[in-house]
Design goal:
By secondary structure, the chain is of the alpha+beta class. It contains five helices and four strands, in the order E-H-H-E-H-E-E-H-H. Helix content is 41%, strand content 17%.
């Protein structure tokens, strides 16, 4: 994830089960075709396979989009169409958006800790699922 700390990026946090994320996918794919023209990186994070990153960025709704410029993070809240994405980058509209505060900065120590808690929760969920589904143990066993 540290790759996005250099240069300019637009990053979408999504989940395959999310209807709004699936609806945005063709637009996001089309926008990603403009990376060379705009000289920016376009990324996508599946929160189901990268829970630590969703924790680090405090993603609470899907899809969530961030603009990153040389390690400075801003949440994109504009329209969800290709032309709006392009205009946001090309016209530097991101400069009018408030930066993520330092205490919520994804590269801060506290957000790094939050990312570890998100990862731990996924491990615990997998242990619970294994005990209850694979070994057919009662649910309460996983809490002991």
């Amino acid at each position: 994830w540290t790759e996005i700390l250099k240069g300019e990026w637009m990053v979408e946090f999504m989940a395959p089960w999310c209807p709004a994320c699936r609806a945005l996918q063709p637009t996001w794919d089309e926008f990603s075709g403009w990376t060379e023209d705009l000289e920016i990186g376009v990324g996508q994070v599946d929160v189901t396979s990268s829970p630590g990153l969703s924790g680090r960025f405090m993603v609470t709704a899907l899809p969530t989009i961030f603009h990153v410029k040389d390690g400075v993070f801003r949440q994109y809240r504009g329209a969800r169409d290709k032309d709006s994405f392009i205009s946001f980058v090309e016209d530097k509209k991101w400069s009018q958006v408030e930066e993520i505060s330092s205490w919520k900065d994804p590269s801060s120590v506290q957000m790094t800790m939050v990312s570890y808690f998100f990862k731990l929760s996924m491990v615990l969920r997998n242990v619970h699922t294994t005990l209850t589904e694979e070994y057919q143990l009662p649910y309460w066993v996983s809490y002991v």
